[in-house]
TrEMBL record:
PANTHER family: F-BOX DOMAIN-CONTAINING PROTEIN (PTHR32278), F-BOX PROTEIN PP2-B12-RELATED (PTHR32278:SF111). It comes from Davidia involucrata (Dove tree). This is F-box domain-containing protein. Residues 3-49 form the F-box domain. Coiled coil: none annotated.
Length: 250
């Protein structure tokens, strides 16, 4: 119709259009005008950017003070992951896509000899999101594993898996003498030298590997992630494990 523009669209139609874009696009729309901001910031739009099962996920966390708006919740989860699963797992969102980020805390991992105080020590750190972290005293066999149900992750998404840790005051030793063995799901063993990178939250990480979470693996309900070094029997010490993170790759 001649002379018509976006302002003539009903609110429901306008919100539907914005919800088919992306969170960053919605933020751009909100800068255009006051009326556009009302539509772009509405729950009708941001509810579509949140994972469809987010209420079930955060509903298990009775200590979470949920923001009033869907956009506020999205922003909060993209900057400050919340604890779920009795505090043993964290849930957040990738800022640009809204896809899920999950981290299994150290207590949720399979760590060989984790309950032997000669090898591992369970401590608390104020900078950790979890109540307990695992400090390595010394081992000759290093073997850490995580298992996660695929349905808990975002579908049709490539995920990277990362061991998240930091050095003790004494520093680590023994990890750079031989390559680490890394396994993700049904992929072949990969070998990688010990070369961690620093994270924005002050911890360090090593990428264990990646996998594509799609419908073709419905018969494989879980993905297992393994990082180990057991072949050289060298003494290893000096790291504190916070967890293993499953994070969408760009």
């Amino acid at each position: 119709m001649e002379g018509s523009n976006l302002n003539d669209l009903p609110k429901d139609c306008f919100c539907e259009i914005i919800s088919l874009t992306s969170p960053s696009d919605a933020c751009s729309w909100s800068l255009v005008s006051r009326i556009y901001r009302t539509y772009a910031d509405s729950n009708d739009v941001w509810e579509r950017f949140l994972p469809s099962d987010y209420k079930d996920i955060i509903g298990s966390n009775s200590n979470t003070d949920h923001p009033e708006s869907s956009k506020a919740l999205y922003v909060r989860l993209s900057h400050h992951p919340i604890l779920i699963d009795d505090g043993n797992m964290s849930f957040g969102l990738e800022k640009r896509s809204g896809k899920k980020i999950l981290m299994l805390g150290a207590r949720k991992l399979g760590i060989i000899w984790e309950n032997n105080a000669n090898y591992w020590r369970w401590i608390s750190l104020p900078e950790s999101r979890f109540t307990e972290v695992a400090e390595l005293v010394e081992v000759w066999w290093f073997d850490v594993r995580a298992r996660l149900e695929r349905r808990k992750l975002s579908e049709m998404t490539t995920y990277g898996c990362y061991l998240v840790f930091k050095e003790t005051e004494q520093g680590w030793s023994g990890f750079d003498e031989r390559p680490m063995e890394l396994i993700v799901g049904l992929n072949k063993i990969k070998y990688l030298t010990w070369a961690p990178t620093e994270r924005d939250d002050g911890w360090m990480e090593i990428e264990i590997g990646d996998f594509f979470n799609d419908d073709h693996h419905r018969d494989v309900a879980e993905v297992e992630v393994v990082v180990r070094q057991t072949s050289d029997y060298s003494r290893k010490s000096g790291i504190i494990i916070q967890g293993i993170e499953f994070r969408p790759k760009q």
